[in-house]
Amino acid sequence: MGIPTAPAAQAAGRFASAGPEALLDWAFRTFGRRIAVATSFGAEDVVLLDVARKVEPDAVFFAIDTGRLPEETFLVAEAWRERGARIRWYFPEHAAVEGLVNEAGAYSFRDGVEERKACCAVRKVEPLQRALSGLEAWITGLRRDQSPTRAQIASVEQDDAHGGIVKINPLTSWTSEQVWDHIRAHRLPYSALHDRGYPSVGCAPCTRAVQPGEHPRAGRWWWESPEHKECGLHRPSAAPRNASNAPGPAGEGAGGNA
Known about the structure:
Blueprint: H1 5-14, H2 20-31, E1 35-38, H3 43-55, E2 60-64, H4 71-82, E3 86-90, H5 94-104, H6 113-132, E4 137-139, E5 156-159, E6 165-168, H7 176-185
Parallel strand pairs: 1-2, 1-4, 2-3, 4-6
Antiparallel strand pairs: 5-6
């Protein structure tokens, strides 16, 4: 399943300077129905909802309800559903959640990095594995300047953490300013938490507003060091950030995209 590391790296080079529309067009043409767009309804994700649906009106999106999401996330999700977005929801296995909470408590994720990762594994990672089952590729809203752990992501990667399928990140080189310019220019629905000092939104007990001068992801798992701030959904991939000897963006749609 997926494409080998070298072709993934070549695709990353091919679209290094292309806009997200060109990369998404290639992705949907290449993978057809074997691709879906991940969304958690943050700022980057609503940009993807907008752009992906313009490129492929029948694009399929999926979201994970961890059981601890803030109400504002569901409100923006509903706004996009009413606009016609096809959103599939995935939920944690109830027995695993019951076991975690009964054994470790409702706030075990604040006891340490390993405890927090155990919670994420139950509430996020396992549902993601089911969401990706049967797919050859998925699309995310990751950007390089979001955090130190994402500084080297490529626009196209081989996702070894999920069976070697292809991971496509159309917004890798976008800045936060570009994201918000797009949202405002197109009057897109977005989470009200962004207007209350939350540049990044996750589960309610793991997200707080940031203070002036703080990093945008300082409000995520604020009791941890920056290098630990990943939940397990996004792990380092095999594809390098840039690829030499890759063709330019011309003819990108001839291949054949979550």
